[in-house]
Amino acid sequence: MLYRGFSGGRRLSFIALFFLGLPIVLARPVSVVQAQAPEPDQTVSLSLAKAKELALKNNLQAVIAKEGIAQAKGQKGISLSALLPSIGAAAYQSSLTSNLAASGLPVESFGFPAFIGPFNRFDARFQMVQSVFNLGAIRRYQAADYSLELARQRQRLAAQQITAATVISYLTTLEAEQAVHAAKANVQLAETLLSLAIHQKETGVAAGIDVARAETRLANQRVQLAQVQSALDTARLDLLRIVNGVSGESLSGLPVLGDQMTLTPEPSRDADKTVQQALIDRVEVSIAEQELKIAEVQRKAAKSDLFPSISVFGDYGSSGLKPTEANYPTRSIGVRLDIPVFSGGRTQAEIQIASSRMRESEAQLKDIRAAVERDVRQSLLEVKTRAEQVRSAELAVSLANRELVLAQDRFNNGVADNVEVVTAQTALENARRSLVSSLYQFNLARLNLASALGHVEDFRL
Which distant-in-sequence residues (6+ apart) come within 8 Å of 160 by Cβ? Predict the structure, then answer.
């Protein structure tokens, strides 16, 4: 299942995108030839709420889940038909011959011919059969009713999975956007430091190696900018693929996201109470409970085949030689009792299969309950850890900025060469990347927690 065991890092990303049949592309440096920069006018604004709404409307899994409900309703109707009257009509006109001697009648000894005919026969009538008591059919109808509810629960699970995948893709795109912003800042910084190195060389304070070092740094920053821009374009396309789904709309308009990743504190929760509430709210638990109900009813249905069944039947119509010759109304009414005596061991085999499936469903329910508890407890811990990681990353950016200013002042005053500046510049770049990654991991942890609680649809940035 999608939400089991998705703590930490990008595990939920992998599972959700695999569930939707999408390539797993993360906002990390990739080859600069993977994607082309979009045209300025080929963009559309897209908020997280709108992205979730469109994905739930257009995604293939949502369409399949909806059709699953329609199929379950059809199966319920088939099961109900065994308890409702079966009414039909038939009519025929035939020409017959018969050998009375073949029936064991000594007609020739009395001077009657053994062969008679041809003669006509006509019959037209309505027929009805109504089940009065059939315990097996009643149990199967109950199982079909539970199956319809199971289909509805699976539709809800599909909606949550689609929502989670959409949020993950949205967060990945946001991470890529912020990585681009950080890369642009790094390029601007490298350009500033190159200008400083050139100025210092012209004034005789710095050497040529300092200028070359700054030029190399600028070239590397431009390469990294191209790489993260390519990753951003790919992430945008993946997001559009999830949002558009089976709608058939063009993927030419790359989205500009309207929300941003921030450090949004999560409310304090008691772990034990949260686990108990999650066991009530998680769709996976409801699905497992519903599957257990179906297995129990199917076992009862198999056992019910050992009991007798009662039905009534009747017909009314007209019979004669022809429709207009010797034609009289006729009818028949009766009660039928069917008593199973021996079915070749089929009923016992069906009981054995149904009992095994019920035990399997019980084991799955226990396993899912244990997984839910683990998900909740681990998600609560991870949210706290990721929040601290973001705060540390913010502090690291502040300290790296301060270190760069000091190194730049030393280089500007001729106290040192620009090795210290490049080192401080590298530290600032790493701090910026770490902050972007930490914000992504924190919001992913929040999504994991919302999923563990069974309310992924409530996730907000």
Answer: 2, 3, 283, 451, 454, 456, 457
Neighbours of 69 (CB within 10 A): 16
In the block, tokens 């309950």 appear at 369
- Give CA separation, 76 vs 154, 290, 335, 351, 415, in Å: 17, 15, 27, 21, 85
Rounded-to-integer distance, Cα 235 and Cα 240, Å: 9
| pLDDT value of position 193 | 85
pLDDT reported for residue 101: 79
Residue ranges in the chain modelled with pLDDT below 50: 1-41
- Would you say 17 and 24 are in contact if contact means Cβ atoms under 8 Å apart? yes
Q: In angstroms, rounded to a whole number, what is the distance separating the alpha carbons of residues 106 and 145?
A: 60
Is residue 184 classed exposed, middle or buried when 0-12, 13-18 and 19+ CB atoms within 10 A define those classes?
Answer: middle
The pTM of the full predicted model, rounded to 2 decimals, is 0.76
**One-character DSSP codes across 181-243:** HHHHHHHHHHHHHHHHHHHHHHTTSS-HHHHHHHHHHHHHHHHHHHHHHHHHHHHHHHHHHHH
Which residue is listed with tokens 């089976």? 246
Residue 105 pairs in a beta bridge with none
Q: pLDDT at position 354, please?
A: 94
End-to-end CA distance of the chain: 25
User: What does the block give as tokens for 73?
Assistant: 């309703």
pLDDT by residue (tens digit) across 34-63?
334 444 445 677 889 999 988 998 888 888
Identify the DSSP state of 109.
G
287: amino acid identity, one letter: I
The closest alpha carbon to 138, from 369, 305, 384, belongs to 305
Give tens-digit pLDDT for 21-39.
433 333 333 333 333 444 4
Beta carbons of 171 and 444 less than 8 angstroms apart:
yes
Backbone CA torsion sign across 368, 370, 373, 376: negative
